Amino acid sequence: MSPQVKSSVKFSVTIAVITFVLAAIFSVVSESVLSNVIWMIGLLIVFIIVLAGVIFDMMGIAATSAVEKPFHAMAAEKVSGAKEAVNIIRNADKFASFCNDVIGDIAGVVSGTASATVVLQIANIFGEGDGSTIQIVLSVVMTSLVAALTVGGKALGKYAAITASTKIIFFAGKAVAFIEKNFKIKLLPDENKTAR
Asked: Is the dihedral of CA 47, 49, 52, 53 positive or negative?
């Protein structure tokens, strides 16, 4: 087995394990939070989850379309986030996989589960139980709304990611620099890949 295949398999297994753990955490947290709040707050939480998925999808696309050149001068001047932005671009495949596949897909699943909880809360207000007409209508409306916001938001995010990739990756670089400096967590490996 070639080193590239081994590296790809290792990354795939790692990302699958991370996805499993994060999905479980997000599901438990969202369910416990949503069960203790009124339906309007629950609806707001659903929209925040959808927005998070859209933002991370946008960052993943931006990483694959950005180029290193604008960040080299900033990195030489020790501008915070510039070195990390270069590192994001050099690891665009891994960064995009994490943002688009891990966070983006988890946000999609969790938003669906969370919207089902909100539907149940609203149906209970009307005194309707499982399988009632109101619950079915609410479920269809919520599912359609969440799907429309997700797809429409991601389409808009992709346009922004392609046209403003440098700004988005610089922001992501600053966020990575902040996390690595303050929480002592290494988010991206330092790999010397060929500059694009």
From this structure: negative
Q: How many CB atoms lie within 10 A of CB 59?
A: 25
pLDDT of residue 35: 82
Per-domain residue ranges of the chain: 3-183
Q: Model confidence over 39-93: pLDDT tens digits?
A: 999 999 999 999 999 999 999 999 999 999 999 989 989 999 999 999 999 999 9
Q: What is the DSSP string of the chain?
A: --HHHHHHHHHHHHHHHHHHHHHHHHHHHHHHHHTTS-HHHHHHHHHHHHHHHHHHHHHHHHHHH--SHHHHHHHHTT-TTHHHHHHHHHTHHHHHIIIIIIIHHHHHHHHHHHHHHHHHHHHHHTT--TT-HHHHHHHHHHHHHHHHHHHHHHHHHHHHHHHSHHHHHHHHHHHHHHHHHHH----S----PPP-
pTM here? 0.86
